[in-house]
Design brief:
2 copies of one chain form a homodimer.
Chain A: E1 2-6, E2 14-15, E3 17-22, E4 28-33, E5 36-41, E6 44-51, H1 56-63, E7 65-70, H2 76-84, H3 92-96, E8 100-102, E9 109-111, E10 116-127, E11 131-144, H4 156-159, E12 163-165, E13 170-180
Antiparallel strand pairs in A: 2-12, 3-4, 3-7, 5-6, 6-11, 7-10, 8-9, 10-11, 12-13
Chain lengths: 183, 183
């Protein structure tokens, strides 16, 4: 039997995306979001939704750039920390021990220790209500050599990314492969 | 060492979302997408990106509504099938044995057999290039009673949702919990 749950924002398997940007004083900041994903293949683009109250909001608008960094399962504590705390109150890089690296192609910092880093140029933003949706054009992706497969692309089992469930407020890893697509 | 992969659309852990809509003849159709997710909490909204060439594209625009259905791991074959084949060529419900149910609150069909069904009213669409982004306001979510936890919300381990990796073109389940958020 189906039960109505009302107007909610649940989707169960959300990605864990750590967004990097500079503030007006060029201080690097990071925050964790689960509301985002690829939205276009040409130009390759990613969307992230942020509340205006988040410290990174103005920095992304001012700098016109951000990075999306994908953590591994063993970096879940750092990912959670930067999602809970605000860059207004602390230097989250210092607190977590993560290292900001200035991207050579966009005006935003990426996280050295995270295995996959997506460089984005802000091309659009729109106020949707509580959240503002930013769309960034992906101008490069870099990855640790150690997580690449024999074709030079990231191997999901080596990256070992995290999935977040907003209902149980818990982080999960990826299990074994179920099947390959017929594509 | 970091290696540049260029302009790509990879994100590793994509959700598997089965989108339901009616075509101009009121025939129900479904397609699988991985480029979508929650984008706003007020109003609660979900975004999905589709190519104009997809059969569902016009149907969603004409009916102003769609559903997002979340399959379980044991429904990965059906999810993959409806992502590969086109509703132009066949009735995907008939081919998969899935059952379309007319939503009582939006003009779109949901999938009876899938454990979580999200009812969406189209509020916005924008051509981003290769893909068009649709934003739907979530007007209700329904779920199988059997997947709910003691608080009446979906339990991720009972729903057992699927994650898709575009690099290996493979489906994965969710592993055991890593940690609870400090939220």
């Amino acid at each position: 039997m189906k039960v109505s749950l009302g107007r909610k924002t649940l989707l169960l398997a959300h990605p864990v995306l750590i967004v990097g940007s500079y503030d007006k004083d060029d201080k690097p900041n990071i925050l964790a979001i689960s509301w985002g994903g690829i939205c276009n293949s040409g130009p390759p683009s990613i969307t992230i939704s942020l509340r205006k109250s988040r410290y990174s909001y103005q920095g992304i608008l001012d700098s016109g750039a951000f990075t999306v960094n994908i953590p591994s399962v063993d970096q879940a504590a750092e990912a959670d920390f930067v999602g809970i705390k605000s860059g207004r109150d602390m230097d989250k890089f210092k607190e977590t021990g993560l290292t900001p690296i200035r991207s050579e192609i966009v005006n935003a910092p990426y996280i050295k220790e995270f295995p996959v880093n997506i460089m984005c140029k802000l091309i659009k933003h729109e106020d949707l209500g509580y959240h503002t949706q930013f769309i960034g054009e992906i101008v490069d992706i870099i990855a640790d050599e150690s997580v690449l497969n024999e074709k030079g692309m990231p191997d999901i089992k080596k990256v070992n990314p995290i999935v977040y469930d907003t209902i149980s407020k818990s982080y999960f890893g990826i299990a074994e492969k179920i099947r390959k697509s017929g594509l």
